[in-house]
């Protein structure tokens, strides 16, 4: 397992922007829960055999820091509690920093610094927009969506993430989190 915790100022704004563009575009604005996405996921999951999630970055931090990975309604109810607590006591910058340091970004690769070193042989603060989008593209399934070798999912998703990064970058709330 590879992991190295770094401060927020040691992570490229490209990577911060890429994970918000990919994982939670409303991150600066919600209170930990994106109810529209939850509703869409529930409708999708009723009609389809493939499951769609709707966890925000805050919910993923709650799960990864305080809880276990798999579980049913009991774990999900604890996740709601911890998400509420995180959103109450931590700043959005702190939540994003923790997420960028604990998220699995490859098989056994945890955090932005470890991923940047592993895939691109550089520090997380030096990751380009394209490299950041590629890392973000693997987040939903870091063991299956690979950067090296480049999986079809990452190859098709990272250009979409780059476009979303361009769309979100000018938002003042996003800009505040990139500083």
General form:
globular
> Strand sequence of the main sheet, in spatial order?
1-2
Count of individual domains: 1
State the fourth-level CATH superfamily.
Answer: Biosynthetic peptidoglycan transglycosylase-like
Q: What integer is the average pLDDT? A: 89
Helicity level: 55-70%
Percent of sequence in beta strands: under 5%
Main beta-sheet strand count, sense and barrel state: 2 strands, parallel
Structural class: mainly alpha
The CATH topology is given as: Penicillin binding protein transpeptidase fold
Question: What's the number of helices?
Answer: 9
What is the strand tally? 2
Q: What oligomeric state best describes the polypeptide chains here?
A: single chain
Low-confidence stretches: none
Task: List strands and helices in order, with pairings.
Blueprint: E1 2-3, H1 13-23, H2 35-47, H3 57-66, H4 73-89, H5 92-102, E2 109-110, H6 112-120, H7 129-137, H8 152-168, H9 172-178
Parallel strand pairs: 1-2
